[in-house]
């Protein structure tokens, strides 16, 4: 069982529009409503693969109720921590060329009592978990060290932790030694305080975060593929995605694929790549099923092209 923790979940509505015209009236060609948040998406992808998953979520108000109902309908077990605030609702505008414009609400403020209850609930639910995926931004009311506290408690209970967050929350959690972290290139650049222009730059940044406490670094590089740096060495992989429709949740699908395949080594990296490539070819934040995957098209190597320039260089 894979347990996910999403401190700031959302209800996500995606509109497909012919083009984005500022100040105009846009007529959607399609729309969908999905439960959202990084950990939520990981659980959705895990469930779509036929693996058991539980999502621990602080939820409030009508959006929170609908979010839980949508998750249960997708085969996700939901453990709700009730909060006084209302769960946020986000909007995404997807254009035919894959360009995505997102409007993310700030979300509710979590009280100290609610924050403590959330930690206790994770501990209670973690006994049967092979992995705990802690994902996303922290809502108002949770200090940057909250994830570090969760990692420490989970390790004390014998659980393995995958952490997907950024900024101060990521840096604060590294001394607690999460088993794997999953930054993208921009988040890596922010963490090390310098721009990343080549794959070699990404490797050095990942090694630096490992020296600060991360067990392994699974770096998402968009169209340039993914990089895994761990005690087993560095592995780089790519997977073609000829028809990009939406990249919402693609990184979360990748993390799900990585954990489903054991969370270590080139086999897990290959699963991450297959899931991510499948996800970007689906509408909104739809998660891939096994029939969507093309594992035979994934390429993995330890002969890293360190001079490879990133298609979208990351700034610090």
From TrEMBL:
GO cellular-component terms in the record?
A: cytosol
Q: Which GO terms describe its molecular function?
A: 1-phosphofructokinase activity; ATP binding
- Which ranges form a coiled coil? none
Keyword ATP-binding present in the record's keywords: the answer is yes
Q: Which UniProt keywords apply?
A: ATP-binding, Kinase, Nucleotide-binding, Transferase
Superkingdom, natural source: Bacteria
What is the recorded name of this protein?
1-phosphofructokinase
Q: Which residues form the Carbohydrate kinase PfkB domain?
A: 22-290
The processes (GO biological process) annotated in the record are: carbohydrate catabolic process; small molecule metabolic process
Q: Does the keyword Nucleotide-binding apply?
A: yes
């Amino acid at each position: 069982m894979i347990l996910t923790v999403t401190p700031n979940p959302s209800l996500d509505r995606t509109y497909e529009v012919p083009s984005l015209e500022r100040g105009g009236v846009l007529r959607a060609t399609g729309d969908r409503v999905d439960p959202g948040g990084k950990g939520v998406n990981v659980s959705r992808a895990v469930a779509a693969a036929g693996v058991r998953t539980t999502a621990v979520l602080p939820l409030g108000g009508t959006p929170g109720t609908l979010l839980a109902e949508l998750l249960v309908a997708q085969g996700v077990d939901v453990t709700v921590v009730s909060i006084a605030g209302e769960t946020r609702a986000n909007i995404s505008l997807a254009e035919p060329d894959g360009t995505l414009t997102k409007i993310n609400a700030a979300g509710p403020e979590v009280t100290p009592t609610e924050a403590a209850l959330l930690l206790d609930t994770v501990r209670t639910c973690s006994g049967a978990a092979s992995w705990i995926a802690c994902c996303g931004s922290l809502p108002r009311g949770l200090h940057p060290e909250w994830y570090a506290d969760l990692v420490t408690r989970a390790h004390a209970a014998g659980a393995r932790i995958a952490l997907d967050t950024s900024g101060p929350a990521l840096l604060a959690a590294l001394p607690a030694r999460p088993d794997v972290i999953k930054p993208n290139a921009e988040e890596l650049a922010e963490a090390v305080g310098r721009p990343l222009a080549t794959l070699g730059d990404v490797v050095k940044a990942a090694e630096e975060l490992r020296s600060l406490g991360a067990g392994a670094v699974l770096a998402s590089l968009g169209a340039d593929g993914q990089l895994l740096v761990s005690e087993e060495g560095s592995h780089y992989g790519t997977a073609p995605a000829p028809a990009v429709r939406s990249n919402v949740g693609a990184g979360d699908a990748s993390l799900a694929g990585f954990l489903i395949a054991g969370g270590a080594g080139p086999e897990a990296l290959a699963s991450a790549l297959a899931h991510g490539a499948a996800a970007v070819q689906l509408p909104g934040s739809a998660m891939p099923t096994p029939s969507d995957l093309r594992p035979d098209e994934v390429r993995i190597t330890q002969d890293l092209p360190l001079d490879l320039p990133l298609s979208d260089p990351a700034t610090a």
